[in-house]
Design brief:
The chain has 318 residues and is mostly helical. The chain has two domains: 142 residues, no CATH class; 145 residues, no CATH class. It has eight helices and no strands. The longest helix is centred in the N-terminal third of the chain and has 23 residues. The radius of gyration is 20 Å and the shape is globular. The N terminus is likely disordered.
Amino acid sequence: MGRILSLALALGCFAFVLSGPALAAGNEAGLDGRAQEICQALERFQENVELLRQAMKGEKAPAKEFPAENPDYRDVYDIALTLYGKTDKLAYEKTATRGEFFSNVDVAAITPGDIAALVDNAGKRLAPVLAKYGLSPAPLPPPDAATTATAVYRRAVAVNKQLNKLLDNKTTPADIYRQITWAINYSREILGLFPEASIPALPPLRQGKTPADIYTALIHIFRVVADISRTSGFSAIEIPYAVLDDVTQLTIDDVYDLATVVASQLAFLRSKLKNKSLLPGVYYPGPKTLDDDYQLAGQLKASVDEAYFNIVDDSWIK
């Protein structure tokens, strides 16, 4: 039996963690200082990116902080992986070289050491770009004993936003479309566990959509996925509706970054399936518009709503 979808899905603090402890303030004493170390490295990385921005005469990203709370190890790793990917892209654009780092960690067993290694590798990829512009790397700042995982996550989001402004090849609606397609593929495989579940069709195309429209849709989707995670016995990062208080400055990059978060959350849930299928590759879909992205997000919303109706406890992963 399914359950009626609440019209207001609360993202309250959820303490029970199965996939690995959250990097919360009260938990950091047992991390051997890794959270402080990671934040130090990120702060230096951010200063180096700012040096580059000034040298490149690039646009400065808005300073508004992303209000995420209580990330798990996998959440911090995901945002650090995004940071590495954008840094690698920038380094390729400016120096025609590719990094050798490859992420092959178990998403259910991520450690602070994995996160620190990612940030360290991102710093190594940024070094030749700094050198090209004749810049010396910023010194390592002093540690902050009050550092929390939330602070680490928010700083990584801020750095990603600035990296977006420095890239020559900008994010396109087709990039967003690919991330939403991945998310739909993950949700469909989860729905395959329930014979009574229906696979939603693509809704009608609606014209004139903006980044704010798609971002708002993805926030609603994220909150449903977070609720599924909690129902299944896992922690879930909190992104409150306050993030939608001012959507006037949202860009296509913000939409892409949020789409990757949604896809990674669904990928984690899919990783808990006992029998997983080999998912088809998601290739370049051809030219797309924001209207196409909004349409596909509508299909994703219907898919995660269907999963919410059918997942009433953690029995689906046992």
